[in-house]
Amino acid sequence: MNILGIETSCDDTAVAIYSDTKGILSNIVSSQIQIHQQWGGVFPELAAREHTKNILYVLDTAIKEANITPEEIDGIAVTVAPGLIVSLVIGFSAAKALSLAWDKLLIPVHHIEAHIFANFIEKEVPYPFLALVVSGGHTELHIIKGFENYQFLGGTLDDAVGEAYDKVARMLGLGYPGGPIIDKLAKEGREVIKFPRPLIKDKGKNKFNFSFSGLKSAVLREIEKGNFKKEDIAKSFQEAATDVLVYKTIDAAMEFNIKNIVVAGGVSANSRLREKLLNFGKTKNLNIHFPPLYLCTDNAAMVAYTGFKRFKEKHKTINLDFEAKARLRLDKFVDILYKS
Ligand code: KG4
Ligand code: ZN
In this predicted structure, what is the pLDDT of residue 338? Predict the structure, then answer.
């Protein structure tokens, strides 16, 4: 079975083809980094305009690189939520058009779900597992009891961790996206400032929730004082942000007695997060799984694979009247899917 995946939820225009016998046949991502760099973040209308410009070229390239004909494609998987609505609808419209013109199955995928199951493409993880989702738009903990059996534990009350990385990088004048730049710069710095670790010890209603805007403001105050080098600020910020992620994740794994932890989303590429989770996880006998680096940030291979799983395991498809959604929690997505 060959599934074509389309992903346009934010600023990457991506198309990939996944084969159940041969794996990823092609995985094309057209990045808009150059366009958004001047704003220090994603500018929604520009993102939508670029998707419209790029989608057909990316589609064509993915099909050519996979060396496949449309007749050999069985279904079109597409990210339908969450994301920038103006971006989502472009990929979704392309998917609907292809499914209609080629008479193919149309399979919906949730962006967070795709990030999580990117971990399965090379090697499956046993259920149940805990998923820490860390990206530019999300910071969430879920218990994944099985495919489509998801329990939401908590999420961010304000900024996502990737967003905090991007904003701190902008405040330091380092460019966009800030995560990889700060990750690299922090390796040359020392933790000279003990920044706050928001909600890290909360045992109440925010036990599994996150908050990064206070940390970001604390960093801004230090930058304005001008007493420290950029690399030391980067290191101090990275230590605080990753401490919160690691501490809360391990705490959740212990509380729910879950032995496997999956990390997903763009920030899962972070070298310090990987190092700390692996070290701390070892002391608690936990198995920590990360996606390969080329599948951490947005791509369509994860969408094609998750769409393949949805069809193989659940035989679930949707009709052309299904709508994209800017905001939709992972567990609620499953509810909506089976009401449609
Ligand atoms: O998953 P993703 O590609 O897009 C969203 O779904 O949001 O994640 C992008 C985010 C950006 O905020 C970027 O700065 C961050 O992932 N990121 C990193 C690293 N690589 C990408 N953050 C920290 N360290 C990294 N190495
Ligand atoms: Zn993403």
Answer: 93
Quick one: which ligand is closest to 136's CA? 1
Tens digits of residue pLDDT in 285-333: 999 999 999 999 999 999 999 999 999 999 999 999 999 999 999 999 9
Sheet containing 287-289: order of strands: 149-155, 139-146, 129-134, 260-264, 287-289
Ligand 1: does its nearest atom lie under 6 Å from the Cβ of 11? no
Q: To test the ligand 1 pocket, which listed residue (156, 297, 299, 302) has its Cβ within 8 A of the most ligand atoms?
A: 297
Nearest-CA residue for ligand 1 atom 16 is: 266
267 lines ligand 1 (CB under 6 A): yes
Contacts of 168 (CB under 8 A, 6+ apart): 178, 182, 216, 219, 233, 234, 237
193 C-alpha to center of ligand 2: Å?
Answer: 30
Q: Is the CB of 183 under 6 A from ligand 1?
A: yes
CA distances from 159 to 39, 40, 136, 177 (A): 17, 15, 9, 15
Calpha distance 29→309 (Å, rounded): 22
- Residue 134 CB–ligand 1 contact under 6 Å: no
| Peptide bond just before 198 cis, omega within 30 deg | no
Q: Give me the pLDDT at residue 83, please.
A: 97
Helix axes 161-171, 178-186, angle to 10 degrees: 70
Cα separation, 286 vs 259, in Å, equals: 5
